[in-house]
Amino acid sequence: MWALRSALLLRSAAGRAMSQGPARRQRPPKDPLRHLRTREKRGASGSPGPNTVYLQVVAAGGRDVGAALYVFSEYNRYLFNCGEGVQRLMQEHKLKVARLDNIFLTRMHWCNVGGLCGMILTLKETGLPKCVLSGPPQLLCGPTRHQNTRMRP
């Protein structure tokens, strides 16, 4: 009799547990710099490169606004030209500013560099360890010449 009663109690307790659904496991917090570690692992393994490369037009260009392109793959992210309003447009299109690797400037004109100051401040605020700025030779003049920044002419 005692064995029958304990078996019924176990069965009813199991039924209650199954009706409530499985207990959810807490996920560990995401590492904010996991994409950098992924890139480092890729370099060590020697894989040839990404399978697919995507191109997104951030700004099409107009009378006062320059064109901006966002080229990305599973490993690298590049921004070509950083005109005024590009940061807002990237946020509207759900493009990740914090994962940029390189910013390329095609010419030193306000429609191509107008949003660069804000972009650099945002990248600094997000904690991005490095983002290479590449552009024409006029880019390395004035206050940027003596600062500890990584730029490629």
Automatic annotation (TrEMBL):
Location within or outside the cell: Mitochondrion matrix, Mitochondrion nucleoid
Cofactor: Zn(2+)
Signal peptide location: 1-19
Principal location class: mitochondrion
Record field: catalytic activity: Endonucleolytic cleavage of RNA, removing extra 3' nucleotides from tRNA precursor, generating 3' termini of tRNAs. A 3'-hydroxy group is left at the tRNA terminus and a 5'-phosphoryl group is left at the trailer molecule
Record keywords, A-Z: Endonuclease, Hydrolase, Metal-binding, Mitochondrion, Mitochondrion nucleoid, Nuclease, Signal, tRNA processing, Zinc
Keyword Zinc: yes
CC per GO annotation: mitochondrion
BP-aspect Gene Ontology terms: mitochondrial tRNA 3'-end processing
Stored SUPFAM superfamilies: Metallo-hydrolase/oxidoreductase
Primary enzyme class: hydrolase
Keyword Protein transport found: no
Superkingdom, natural source: Eukaryota
EC identifiers of the protein: 3.1.26.11
Stretches the record annotates as Disordered: 15-49
Molecular function per GO: 3'-tRNA processing endoribonuclease activity; metal ion binding
PANTHER family: ZINC PHOSPHODIESTERASE ELAC PROTEIN 2
Family: Belongs to the RNase Z family.
Name of this protein: Zinc phosphodiesterase ELAC protein 2
Species of origin: Ailuropoda melanoleuca
Name of the coding gene: ELAC2
